[in-house]
Amino acid sequence: MATKTLNVGMIGYGFMGRAHSNAYKQVGQFFPGDYRVVLKAICARDEAKAKAFAEQWGYESFETDWRKLIARPDIDAIDICTPNNVHKEIAIAAAKAGKMVLCEKPLAMDTADGREMTEAVEKAGVANMVWYNYRRIPAVTLAKRLIDEGRLGRVFHYRAKFLQDWTIKADLPQGGQGLWRLDVAAAGSGVSGDLLAHCIDTAVWLNGAMASVCCMTETFVKERLHTLTGKVEAVGIDDACIFMGKFANGSLANFESTRYARGHKAQYTFEINGEDMSISWDLHDLHRLSVYDYKDESKLRGWRSIHVTDNSPDHPYMANWWVPGLAIGYDSSFTHQVADFLTGLETGKPQGPTFRDALETQQILDCILASAKSRQWVDVPKA
Ligand SMILES: NC(=O)c1ccc[n+]([C@@H]2O[C@H](COP(=O)([O-])OP(=O)(O)OC[C@H]3O[C@@H](n4cnc5c(N)ncnc54)[C@H](O)[C@@H]3O)[C@@H](O)[C@H]2O)c1
Predict the structure, then answer these.
(1) 66 lines ligand 1 (CB under 6 A)
(2) 93 within ligand 1 shell (Cβ under 6 A)
(3) Are the C-beta atoms of 280 and 290 separated by less than 8 Å?
(4) 35-86, pLDDT tens digit by residue?
(5) Which of 89, 197, 234, 339 has its CA 20 to 30 A from that of 271?
(6) Ligand 1 centroid to 42 CA: how many Å?
(7) Looking at residue 192, what DSSP letter applies?
(8) How confident is the model at residue 383 (pLDDT cuts 50, 70, 90)?
(9) From the alpha carbon of 197, which atom of ligand 1 is closest?
């Protein structure tokens, strides 16, 4: 039985606003604990839309100015679901007001901003988290457990891809609602910060720190009409980003992301090759973890596909859902993230990724873009 409440004030009601709201509504049903999440207020600049969202999703109230939301004494936690260029100002103001801060990824536009944000939440001593939700897909969490148990042995390779195809049309505009990801002033970067950020967060979580990187980026469409200025403007984001690198544990990194892979909508995959075991995962088949165990007896040795849906504690998060064999989806990764955040509040042990964890990813992002610019290898500073 929940004895405490967590009053959430969320800013932004787009894609992530919906994903987070859904998670807040589900968490108490599937992961009951000490805290009951209350959808206290939604904040968005358009009053009619904010009101409609509040009614549809069950928020008690709405605001049209995030500063007013932060000033409200009945709000415990601020959830930032806005484009990347407004994360910093909101996060720092929220921390200064003593609110917990949950921030969408990438943490910031660059490392300098990310560091300021991290220092602000740490100085204020407020609970904080960044929504790198892919860690919480049961098959990915199982991968982490296998690695932590030492089953892979020495790791040689980590390769990851995140492929999409939605910006191929040269007449697609940039900027404004729905298209801010193409506008460098709002997004900070292109596929690196938007997609590879996820791959890097998972990789550092699974395989440890990255030591050095060498990167190539491409902007295939050089100019696009800007919806806010009405002018054709240069495109400042990376449309595609490919990098190799070395992890601190000596393994080799091979990462690729693009929005020009015709036919792919959101294909996030990773594969890790160790001396004793390889594992691989594909977002399009998110419940399965593929495992090749060299320690199996030779006549049975081969890739096996584990459907991570057992409701024993061996399959992370699944005991709280349905019966063995039944799938959950992308949305549940957010529910798991809220559940883990609440566990962090209950135990006093943050479950991560914290702002500090996300700062490490931000640093790697800066290094890959610096490498692409200089056409040189770049050492990643120690976190
Ligand atoms: N974790 C993930 O898998 C994931 C997936 C998608 C997006 N994201 C991240 O979530 C954030 C939001 O992305 P999205 O896809 O939800 O975008 P979106 O365009 O769907 O929604 C953005 C929302 O922010 C609002 N907004 C913009 N500026 C604002 C301001 N100054 N004050 C108040 N509201 C403002 C917009 O009106 C809109 O409601 C981005 O940082 C993005 O990188 C993360």
Answers:
(1) yes
(2) no
(3) yes
(4) 999 999 999 999 999 999 999 999 999 999 999 999 999 999 999 999 999 9
(5) 339
(6) 13
(7) I
(8) confident
(9) 43
